[in-house]
Amino acid sequence: MMVEREFFQRDRRLHPPAFTPQYKTSVLRSPRMPLWSLQTSLSEVTGPLFKPEELGPLDNDLLLNYARTGEPIGERTIIHGHVRDEAGQPVRNTLIEIWQANAGGRYRHKNDTYFAPVDPNFGGCGRTLTNAEGYYAFRTVKPGAYPFRNQVNSWRPAHVHFSIFGSGFAQRLITQMYFEGDPLIPHDSILQTIPDPKARDRLIARLDLNASVPLDTLAYRFDIVLRGSRQTLFENKREGT
Amino acid sequence: MTVLPYTPETPSQTAGPYVHIGLIPQQAGFDIFQNNFGNVLFVPETPGERIRIEGRILDGTGSPVRDMLVEIWQANAAGRYSHPADRQDDQPVDPSFRGWGRAGTDFETGVYAFETIKPGRVIGRRGHGLMAPHVNLWLAARGVNIGLSTRMYFADEPIANAEDPVLRMIEPAMRRDTLLARREQRDGKTVYSFDIHLQGERETVFFDA
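C-alpha cells for the assembled complex are given below, as produced in the milestone run.
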C-alpha cells in the first residue's frame, strides 16, 4: 500500500458561480463550458511556500507600513483570526495578503478616480504568515464604503480583500471580508453572487471586544477555512477501470 | 443524526479591479514592500532551459483583459516540485527555484509574461506514468467570481503530451489544443505564447481539481 495526499472535493454550491448577471462584469469574463474535473496530482497538492525572512517587520501593520508624515486617518482596527482547513487542522506558515480602500473609500491605485482623497499615510496593503496555530493578525484602519459602476447607484460595503495560499495550489483562494452591522451588506451585488445566505454570513467579520486594545484599537475576528486534505491509501494498480 | 466535524470552505469573491494594490503594488503605482513577488522565477544558478511565457487573456468579445492577475506554479527542470508533498526522491530539489510567480496583464496591451525555466516531467497521480511538462496557471480579476485553474503544455512535446493522463482525458481535440503553447524564437530567446480564452468558441479548458 502507498499513501498520497489529496484534497476534499470543492463544494461549488458554497461559492459564487462564474456567471452572475447581477454583477455585470462577470458576464463576459465567465467560462461557459463545464469545468473539467481533475483528480488531484502532485501539481495540485503542492504549492508555493514562503519564509518569514521574505517579509518585512511592518508588512502586517497598515497603520505604520506607509506612514510618512503621521499615521493614516480612520478607525484604528485589528483584523485577526485563524486559518484552518475543512477538517479543523490549522494551516501553518501560509501567506495571507490583504488590500483595501482608505477610510474615505479611496484606493491607492492609478485606476481609481473616486472623489475621496488618497491618504498620504496609507498604502492599503499588508501581508503576513500564519503562525504554528494558524493564527494571523493585521492592524489597519476601517475602510470606507465607495460607489462602483454596476447599477447607477451601486455601493460597496466596507470590505477588505484577502488572498490566501494554503499548502497546495488547489487551496488558493481570494475573497473579501465585511464588517458586522454594515447597512450596505444586503444591497451589495458582489456579496450577493454567493447564493447561500449562510455562506455569505461567513464573510462577515464579528466585532471582537475581547481582542480590542482598550483606549487604542477595536478588533474584528475573521476566521478562514481552506479545503481539507486526506492521506489516501492506495494499491499500485490502475484505478476505476 | 451524528454531525461530522467538518467546517465548510470560506466562499470565494472576485479580486476586483484593484487586486494590484495587495499583490503587485508597483503595478498599482507605488512602492511599499522591500521584497516584491514578481514574474521572474529563476536566479542565475538555476538549472534549466530559459523560457519566456507570454500571452493575453481574452474575454467573451475577444478583447484582452487588462486587469487580470496571473500566477504560475511549476516543477523544476528535473520534474520535482519544491514542496514536502513531492516525494520523488530520485529527482533533485533545486533550492534556487521556488517554482511560483505572479504577473498582472499590462494595463495598455493586456499582455502577461513570465521568465522561467522549462519544467521537467512529474510523476502522475498514484505513480502511474509521467505527466508531460506543464505549468499550472491560476487567474483572478474583476468579474471573475472564483479563481480559474488551467494548465499550459508545450506544443513541441508531442510524445510526452500523447502520454499525459490529463491531456488524454480531454477527448475533443479542439478543447485539448487550448492547453498547448506555441514555441517561437524571438531575438535569440525562446518564447512560448499562450493566450487564454475565458469564453467563446475557443474557450480554454479550466479545471475543477
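Chain A touches chain B through 90 residues (CB under 8 Å). Chain A is about 5% helix and 30% strand. Further analysis is deferred to the final report.
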